[in-house]
Amino acid sequence: MDLVVDDHPQVREAVAAASPGSKAALLAELPVEAHDWSAPPRPGRRIALRFHATPTAVVGDARVEALRIADAAGTGVAVGAAVGAESEIATGVVVRSIGYRGVAVPGLPFDEASGTIPHRDGRVIDPVTGLPLPGAYVMGWVKRGPSGGIGANRECAAETVGALLDDASARVLPVPDPAATGEAFARLVRRRRPEALGLREMRTVDRAERARGRALGRPRVKLATVPELLAAARTVSRPLPFRCLCPCPDCAARLRGRLTHCRNVYHGEAGMMGLLGYLA
Predict the structure, then answer these.
(1) What is the pLDDT of residue 73?
(2) How open is the CA angle 201-204-209, to the nearest 5 degrees?
C-alpha cells in the first residue's frame, strides 16, 4: 500500500514549519506528489491525501459517479483547474467522515466557536466567573473537541469521574431531593424510554455474544446492529444445562443451575472438575 500526499503549497509550508510531534510533522515522512485527479487511478493500491479541498456535491443520478470539490484556499493548484474553480473526481464510492460538533445542552454554557462545553478537569464552569457549576460534569468530544478514540475517551472519563468523586468526598455536590430514590429514577427511565435495557438485559447480550464466539473458537462475536442487540436482550434466559462431574450425589439438585459451593468435602481435582463440568 502506497501512501502519498497531494502536492499543495500550503501543505509544504505547514510541514516545513511543523514542530516535532505535531500532526503536520507526521506528513514529513510521506512522499509529496502532484496528482492528476482527472486521470484514472494508477495500478496498484494507493492512498493519496489531499488537503485544502472542500467537497461541494456528490455527482450522479442512480449511483455515485463523481465528487465535486473546490480548492478551499483558492490557489487553483489542482491539475487542469483554474484558480477558485471546481473540479470533479470520478468515483463510485463516497465515505462521509467530516468530524463531529458538540450540541448545546439547555442550562449549561456552550462555546459556539469550538462546539464544546467549558470545563476544568471535567467540571463544567461558568465562562464569566470561571467557577464550577455544582453537580455539572462533562466528558467526551463535547468536553475536549472531536479528537481521540477509545483510549482517549477512557482517560477523559477517568478525569471527569475523579473530579466527581473528589467533590462527593468534599461534600460539595448539591443535596439530592429526598424523593429522588433509585426506584424513582427507574420509574422515570421506564416512563421516558420504555425500550431502555438494564443490567439483566446487558448480561443476556453478553452471554449471547460469547455463545456466538464459542461456535467459531473465538472469545465472542459482537452483535452489530441495534435490532440484533434488542432481540438478544429480550430473549428469555433459560438455566444452563448442568453436567456435574463432582462425586457429590445431591450436588445437581442443590445447585439448580446456579453457580455456588458444594458442601462435599471432596475438593481438589474432583471439585474443580465439577465446576468445569458446570461451565461446559
Answers:
(1) 56
(2) 130
Cell of 113: 466557536
Query: What's the gap between Cα 5 and its chain centre?
Result: 28
Dihedral of alpha carbons 257, 259, 265, 266, sign: positive
Q: Residue 185's pLDDT band (boundaries 50, 70, 90)?
A: confident
The strand pairing partners of 132, in sequence order, are 125
CB 62, CB 79: distance < 8 Å: no
Give one DSSP letter per residue of 52-86, joined into a string: SEEEEEEE-SSS--EEEEEETTS---STT--TT-E
Residue indicated by cell numbers 468530544: 141
Instruction: For residues 274 and 265, give the distance between their C-alpha atoms in angstroms, rounded to a whole number.
Output: 13
Q: Using CA atoms, how far apart are residues 261 and 104, in angstroms rounded to an integer? A: 53
Residue with grid cell 449471547, as numbered in its chain? 208
The whole-model pTM stands at 0.47
Question: In this structure, what C-alpha cell is assigned to residue 79?
Answer: 491539475
pLDDT of residue 78 exceeding 80, the answer is no
How far is C-alpha 44 from the geometric centre of its chain's CA atoms? 32
pLDDT tens across 44-77, in order? 888 999 888 888 899 999 899 999 998 865 444 4
- Between the two ends of the chain, the Cα-to-Cα distance in Å is 44
